[in-house]
Write a structure and sequence with these properties.
Distance between the termini: 36 Å
Number of helices: 5
């Protein structure tokens, strides 16, 4: 654990403010859920909570199936990192932080289709680019994204089978969280 040198007091309602610098560095946005841990030494640890992270093994099986049956390279992310991938190097993608461009793509809440001359990488150093992507939305909140990636971005069509499969997967994964 790394000390920041910042000290905050708990107010009369039991609240503590996480400094803006730390929120920015850790990519904690207003409304983000935080999971609280304690240890035997009396430490309280806040960790960003990823609801889709709990479905990592399920998401992994889903993308493996898409890859085997449809020969698609597929990546599933939460709001910050890659949680599952198939058809691409796991070393290149797994647990990597998302690029700012990919995060912006998610915020648009619709099907992304690659535009000529504007390739978007999911994470820094990736050799493939996003061909199609669809945010995973549950109860109105964006919880992640599923994307088809490729080194060949030609022939993108919103009515293609790949685009429809990405939309279907996004809707299906989003519904896994609705109660």
């Amino acid at each position: 654990m790394k000390a920041t040198g910042i000290v905050r007091r708990i107010d009369d309602l039991g609240r503590v403010v996480i400094p803006k610098e730390i929120r920015r560095t850790m990519r904690i946005r207003e409304g983000d859920p935080l999971e609280i841990f304690t240890d035997r030494d009396g430490e309280v640890i806040f960790k960003k909570y990823s609801p889709i992270g709990e479905l990592a093994s399920f998401a992994s099986q889903y993308v493996d199936t898409l890859n085997k049956i449809c020969s698609m390279s597929v990546v599933v992310t939460d709001r910050d990192t890659v949680i599952a991938c198939a058809g691409v190097s796991k070393k290149e993608y797994s647990d990597k932080k998302l690029t700012q461009e990919f995060e912006s793509l998610m915020e648009k809440r619709g099907l992304y289709i690659h535009q000529e001359g504007n390739p978007i990488s999911i994470c820094d150093g990736a050799s493939s680019f996003v061909k199609y992507a669809m945010p995973i939305v549950s109860e109105g909140d964006i919880i992640g994204c599923i994307a088809c990636v490729s080194t060949d971005l030609g022939g993108t069509d919103p009515h293609s089978t790949e685009a429809k499969l990405i939309q279907t997967a996004s809707t299906f994964l989003g519904r896994q969280f609705e109660g």
